[in-house]
Each structure stands twice: as C-alpha cells, then as structure tokens.
Amino acid sequence: MELTGAEIAIRCLQEEGVEYVFGYPGGAVLFIYDALFNQGKVKHILVRHEQAAVHAADGYARSTDKVGVALVTSGPGVTNAVTGIATAYLDSIPMVIISGQVPTFAIGEDAFQEVDAVGITRPCVKHNFLVKDASEIAGTIKKAFYLARSGRPGPVLVDIPKDVSNQKAPFNYPSSVSVRSYHPSQHGEVGQIKHAVQLLLEAKRPMIYAGGGVILSDASRQLTELVRLLGFPVTNTLMGLGGYPATDKQSLGMLGMHGTLEANLAMQNCDVLLAVGARFDDRVIGNVKHFNQEKRKIIHIDIDPSSISKRVKVDVPIVGDVAYVLGDLLAVLHSSKQKPEPQALAAWWAQIEEWRGKRCMGYRNSDEIIKPQFVLEKLYEVTRGDAFVTSDVGQHQMWTAQYYKFDKPRRWINSGGLGTMGFGLPAAMGVQIANPGATVACVTGEGSIQMNIQELSTCKQFRLPLKIVLLNNRYLGMVRQWQEFFHGNRYSESYMEALPDFMKLAEAYGHVGMRIDKPADVEPALREAFARKDDLVFMDFRTDQTENVFPMVPGGKGLSEVILAEEL
Amino acid sequence: MRHIISLLMENEAGALSRVAGLFSARGYNIESLTVAPTEDATLSRMTIVTSGSDDVIEQINKQLNKLIEVVAVMDLSEGEHLECELMLVKVQAVGEMREELVRMAEIFHGRIIDVSDKTYIIELTGAGSRLDSFLQAIDRSLILETVRTGASGIGQGDRILKL
Ligand SMILES: Cc1ncc(C[n+]2csc(CCOP(=O)(O)OP(=O)(O)O)c2C)c(N)n1
Question: Is the ipTM of this complex over 0.90?
C-alpha cells in the first residue's frame, strides 16, 4: 500500500512504540501534522516554543529509558530547537528530532523559512539526515532511532522536505537495521577487566568515580553491588547523581567544582581510581596539571573510546557499555579469592572520615531570612526524597544537587554539559508526561524560569501538576557569586529588576501561586503545595540575596584548592 | 608530529563536511585533505595530512572513527607507506629559459603537458618534499601559478585499507 511521506513518518513512530511527540507546527510540517491528526496512537504535546519541545522530549527520555521525540517546522522552528538539541547532545540523551524543510526544489534558493538544518545542527547531533525521497523515510527513521539509543546515545535529526512528506511511496518498516560503519561495543576486553580487578584488589587508597554513563546504561544496580562488595568510597558526578544511593555511608556525595571536600580530596589523593561512565571534564577535576601531580592508576570504563584519555591519561581503558562491563567485572571479582586489603582500606576510610568531619556543606540558618539550602532540605523531607527533580542552571541547581539526596537513578534531571538556563520547566513537563502520577518538582531561579516561562500555558493545557520551587534571590545568583569572588564585587548586569509578581503570573496562567517570605513558612508551604496533587503550584521563595554556593573549586584550580564557607 | 591519515567513508553528500567540521570545531590542523570515490562507488577515500602531539593524533583517530559515515580509519604514519602528490606548475617560458625548464622538468621526472608561446605547464608527482625542491630549484620569478592536490597515501605490503 502506498502512503504519503508524512503518513510513513507517523507510522514509523508508531512502529517504534512512540507514545508522545513534543512539537510545534508550521508550514513545512503541515502534511506531518495532518497525518498525526488522522491517527490516535501517537499523542502530540503542543508546547509554546520549540526549545521547550526539545527539552520536554529530553526530560521524557532522561526519566525513562526511552527515546524522546520532537517535531518542529523548518527555519525558525529548527533554530529555536538548536539549544535543546545541543543540551541533549552534551549530556548524551537519546532523542529523535523530526524537522520540516522547504520543498526539495526550493532548497538552496533562500526560500521562505529555509535554513540548512543539517548544517546548523551538525556539530551538536550524533548524526543527522536530509531525506530526499519518501521511499527513504522509513529506513532513515529506523536508523535514527537505532543511532539515538545505541552506543553512546545522542540526538539524531531527520530533516524532511515538504514535498517529500506529500510524496507517495510503499511503506515497509524494516525489522532490523545495520550501519556498516557503526558497531558500538558492549562487553569490554576480558584481559583489561582482569587487569582492572587486580589493580582494585591491590589498591591502598581506592576511589570510584561514577558519572552519567551509569544512569544512561541503567547500571546503578551493578555499580551499587560493586561498591558494596569492595567496600570502597564512591562519588557521583552532577550527571551521575542517583547512580549510587546518596544516603549510603559509602557515598561521598558529588565531586567537582561544587562537590564535597571529602569527594574531591579522595579523588585527588587516591592511588587507584575507577572511573565509570564519566569523562574527567573541567567542572569535575578542575585543572588537569594539578590533578596529575598526584600519581595514581586509573581504570576508565566508557562506551565512547574518544572519552578515554581525552583530558587525563588512563592506565586501563575499557571500552564498553557500563552495565555489561560492571557485570563482567563483578563476575571476575566473585571468582577471585583475593579481598581488598582491610588494614589499608580502614586507614583510608579514617582519612576520609576526617575530611567528612569538616562538614563542608554546613550553612548558617536564619530565623529571619530564607536560606536556599533550607528550602532544599525541606523539599527533600516533604517529598521523602522520592520526587523527580529537574532544575535550571545556576546556584539553585548546585544547591539541589548538594542537598537533595538522590537514592535512585533518573530522578535528578538537569542540563550538566551545556548548562542551559530554561531547561527546568519544559524538562519537568516531559518527566511528568512520562511518569503520570509521580511527584515532579522543578527547582529554578528567577532568571532561568523566565527563559521558558511561557510553558506554564502548556502545563495548563495538559494538566501537568508540577511543583515549581523558585529560589528567588533577585540576582542571576551564580553570575553574582563569580563577580563577588573574581571581579571585585562589580555586579555587572546580574541584578534582576522589574521582576514579575510570580504568584499572580502563575494565577494568570490558571495555576496556583504562592509567595513565601519567612523561614517558618517554608515547610507548611511545601506541604500544602505537594498535597495539591492535581494542581501546578508555583512557589516563589524569597531567599537570601547574598548566599553563595560552597565548597567551591574556582575555575582552573585543582581539586584540593577549594574555598570553604568559613574561609570567607 | 606530522601524520598522514587515510580513511574510507560513505560516498554521501555531507560526509566531507562532517570530517572538515570535526577538524575546525576541535581545533585540529589540516595541512591537506584529498578525497575521491573508490572502485566501490559507495565509498570515498580520503587522505588527511595533519600534525599534533601524540595525544591529539589519538583523539583525531578516535573522533574520526566516531563519525557515523566513516567506515575505516588508518594512521598510515604508524607503518610503512607511500605518499604521492600531484602538482601542476605554469611557468613563464621564453628565450633560453625554454630549454632550461625542459631540462629541470626532466631532472625532477616531470612532464610538460601544455605549451604556449610564452608558457609551459609542468606536471610533477611525488613526495611533497620533492615538489617543494622543484619549486626551489627554478627561478621564483618564472612561476606564474601552481596547483597541488595534497598528499594521497597508501600502506605498503599487506597494510590494506579496504572493507
Ligand atoms: C541560556 C543561558 N544563558 C546564560 C547562562 C549563564 N548563567 C549561568 S548561571 C546564570 C544565572 C542564573 O540565574 P538564576 O536562574 O536566577 O539562578 P541562581 O543562580 O540565582 O540560582 C547565568 C546567567 C546560562 N547558563 N544559560
């Protein structure tokens, strides 16, 4: 049977089991929207800005293990989507973006709403395609989903010209797909795994450093088993939070620029480091030279060979899917009679406890003014640590990562790699849609929330009962903090004047708004808000304007060159 | 260090720009880049001459391998290989220089492939350094224009880059 290209595209989504598409219509995708209209399987979530469509698809993917799908029109539809695509790319999120394109005969003529979508997105996608004939749509979409979810995941864009979406072709969805140049490895090399086990068992000051790869490969069970079996300390990156239970005593919390003292010092001073699905990026290990001053053996498990020995030379590279490699590593460990050396390990833990004893995350609470950290502690209590929490970018993001103890993977959803303000609200929409009935909170700042505030309207339309926790410090707080520390208190353009009344704004969109000014009201407000299961509640917490995020390893410094709260 | 990297990639629109884009986005050097379809029409073969520290070259190889359209990569510099480049030089050829240039071309195993009353076009192939020597050996003021393809490389013996 012959179908139009548009019908084929939608049929492909059905075949892939896609439940939701996040999108925004326009001229070049009219046929695709028509095909959507005529079926009932794939549901469409109409956002208010294409960036939000991509972030929502992203949140949907991060909170499940499914591929997120976004649909946008040509030209401005695609350019609006680019920030979302780059956000997903830097955090390796599986996603397929279908974009409309001007008709094939008009390509290259600077036609109305023409941009070179493939060219513009090339550096921020795993791969992309321009489909030139309707008969190629099915094969291309099949490939797009395969590439997006396999290996190191990432966004894949499929650009479909308008005439192609209206051209007829027979529809056969391929049952399998192979790309001759693409064979991501699953299992690591056995010899290397044995070598790694040997190093781990001989370690005197071992450390496990686990990143977003653990979440993406659904390997937290294996990681947890490994950490417990060995009795080693473990730290999670910003992207890896929840990969190992934060409330467990072997967890040293997050490492990096705003990581705990104990995690950063253990990283710096260990003699054997096992890096799992992490990439030694600049916000994590700081200055590479400083990091390399201490000698240690490094084992690095990653699915992407180009992540290995990119910033830091490693001794035992293991290329493979984290879940498989950890499984194999556990098998070797179980069959080995040797155990980690108890005395050395006890001494190492004693050292770590000394660092931990400095309580680097302590803060001085107040009866008069709301401390942001206090709000997050209460948020954690009120939601019993079991919410999905998205965030935007800034101080509030770091405080959430520090004070909300994630015990489960896929609960903490943030833009780590690109650091995209405006991510939190639309991502939360995707999370809520993927997890109906679940508690979803979005922690945000008054700067970030205004970057995609229009999505409150989408939330109304689709009845998404999000809980928005605005830590309103009237500053672009993270910028202000850097200006205070490194630019002589010159607060250049980091103060936000003329802020809207967020409570009224929420109400204008048909939601519940709250404004909280006093510390004593924080917990009652949270309780009331989270009790309203069916409503979106927007909580405007007026927080201390001068609070800073500690500890802090300044950019370009080493992990032990940390600024602690009391030092200032 | 200078490296010569050979790769096979899908003969598709856009594949070249992915490779070129990778080099510019990550700040890698490209000294030269040549590409043409192979005997298997679905594949193109590219030779890239680049330079960088061992770490950078390792990353270049890995990043190239990561591109979906790149089918196989070989760093030719890691073993025995040959490289060859083609150069066309248009020179001013009048008076006694007409004889002199024929002689120089012969010494460098070049061929004169076009003759006008005032010019020759000389074709030379060989290692890039040999082509450089030729340009140095003749009077600079005689050179009207030059065009070079950049190096093509191939592994020797059983070092074969094929599917
Ligand atoms: C789209 C975008 N533009 C600019 C920045 C740079 N930036 C990082 S944090 C920050 C301040 C964020 O302010 P706010 O959302 O109020 O959060 P706070 O730091 O006060 O918690 C800015 C401007 C960014 N990360 N993303």
Answer: yes
